[in-house]
Amino acid sequence: MRVESLVNIIGADFYTGVPDSQLKALCDYLMDTYGIDPKHHIIAANEGNCTALAAGYHLATGKVPVVYMQNSGEGNIINPVASLLNDKVYAVPMIFIIGWRGEPGIHDEPQHIYQGEVTVKLLEDMDIKTFIISKDTTEDELTAVVSDFRRVLETGRQVAFVVRKGALTNTCEFEYRNDNKMMREEIIKHIVKAAGEDPIISTTGKASRELFEIRTVNGQSHKYDFLTVGSMGHASSIALGIAINKPDHRIWCIDGDGAVLMHMGSMALLGANAPKNIVHVVINNGAHETVGGMPTAAAKIDIMAIAKACGYPNAVCADSFADLDKALDAAKNSNELSLIEVKCSIGAREDLGRPTTTALENKQSFMAYLAELDSNCK
Predict the structure, then answer these.
(1) Which of 19, 310, 351, 376 is a good FRET partner for 169, with 20 to 30 A between their CA atoms?
(2) CA 306, 258, 236, 180 torsion: positive or negative?
(3) How far is CA 90 from CA 49, 85, 128, 130, 227, in A?
(4) What is the pLDDT of residues 16-36, one digit of tens each?
(5) Rounded to a whole number, what is the distance in angstroms from the first to the last CA of the chain?
(6) CA–CA distance, 316 with 303 (Å, rounded to integer)
(7) Which residues 6+ apart lie within 8 Å of 64 measured at CB?
């Protein structure tokens, strides 16, 4: 189905969400039509954030907003749906458009498999009436569904469209770019060199894929790295949990700007605990690049200043490889929590692969390496 047909049939004039590759046609259409326009389209930090934002829109206008997301974001909307939107509370009508990663019977990455299995069930459990859009869905069928949905929305309840892979198409592809010069894969190569044999926790998406391939090309073991293939925004908290319990070993966290925004409270937790053995590297390209390049708010904020406000003793920003190497060396030789924000371009190799080991194998080899580090210290 053409994405213009979906938008026209729904008839809403405000969209907010977190981008998803399965919904790239919709995201590109919204960026091409509105860009980032507070009156019509806002890309939020996380899915709970955009649900609350959409509720505010409804309170101010009386209209029905649309929230879009990947199905991995359903967990982030459970609280606001149950305690804010529900018709036993404020009865806020809302339309969700959800990309169905890990749909049963469709091959996908391991972090999407279970989420895909429970996607529709979670919506049903939250009393959200659901319709699945596939490649075969017609405009007449969708029009009839929307007519039925309107009666549900009038009662202060919510509805959802779950979008199968390839179900939405768009005539144009929006181009995303920035003026930064450093490529993320090259940045990670510099981090790997500086880290040596220190453990690295990497964030979800292409950063972990690039780290895996760098190790392969270098002929290095993958045991040094924990690849956070899912749980966007939680890599630094995983790193904190490890660092607290491995105080004699430096722990590196390779993070992304979209991930940091999604759960920025983790920076406050890091700063409050101030573990002396963490180097937190935030690669900032101001984009949700792994799912298509749609912008994040991180291009307009000062992550270094936020880190300092959260209590990080050291925080610097690098926009060249010379500055990056200097910052990495300083962090490696300090005995304090450090943050390095690295300004990065948008883009990756077309032939970028995926990890060839399973998530469970990654966990087991990483844990064995952490145990090995302890034994070497005795």
Answers:
(1) 351
(2) negative
(3) 17, 6, 15, 21, 40
(4) 999 999 999 999 999 999 999
(5) 63
(6) 9
(7) 12, 58, 93, 94, 95, 153
Contact 72, 45 (CB under 8 A): no
Helix (H) and strand (E) counts in the chain: 14, 14
276: its two tokens = 């002396």
Tens of pLDDT, residue by residue over 163-217, are 999 999 987 778 888 999 999 999 999 999 999 999 999 999 999 999 999 999 9
SS3 129: strand
CA distances from 236 to 119, 231, 252, 327, 373 (A): 26, 11, 9, 19, 21
**Predicted TM-score of the model (pTM):** 0.93
For residue range 214-264, list pLDDT tens digits in order.
Answer: 999 999 999 999 999 989 999 999 999 999 999 999 999 999 999 999 999
- Backbone phi, then psi, for 99, in 5-degree steps? -75, 130
Give 200's strand partners.
225, 252
Q: What is the 3-state secondary structure (H, E, C) of 316-337?
A: EEECCHHHHHHHHHHHHCCCCC
Structure tokens at 233: 């925004």
85: phi then psi, degrees, rounded to nearest 5: -80, -30
Rg (CA), the chain: 22
Phi, psi dihedrals of residue 173, rounded to the nearest 5°: -115, 120
DSSP helix/strand/coil, 42: strand
Q: State the average pLDDT over residues 291-313.
A: 93
Q: Which H helix or E strand runs over 314?
A: strand 314-318
CA–CA distance from 82 to each of 45, 52, 60, 94, 350 (Å)?
A: 20, 12, 21, 13, 41
At 377 the pLDDT is 63
Nearest CA-CA partner of 273 in 336, 332, 341, 329? 336
Q: Is 291 exposed, middle or buried (0-12, 13-18, 19+ CB in 10 A)?
A: buried
Q: CB neighbours of 244 closer than 8 A, spacing ≥ 6?
A: 273, 275
Strand segments, DSSP code E, in 40-109 are 41-43, 66-70, 94-99
- DSSP of 228-287: --SSTT-HHHHHHHHHHH-TTS-EEEEEEHHHHHHTTHHHHHHHHH--TTEEEEEEE-SE
**Residue 268 corresponds to which amino acid?**
A
- The DSSP call for residue 131 is E
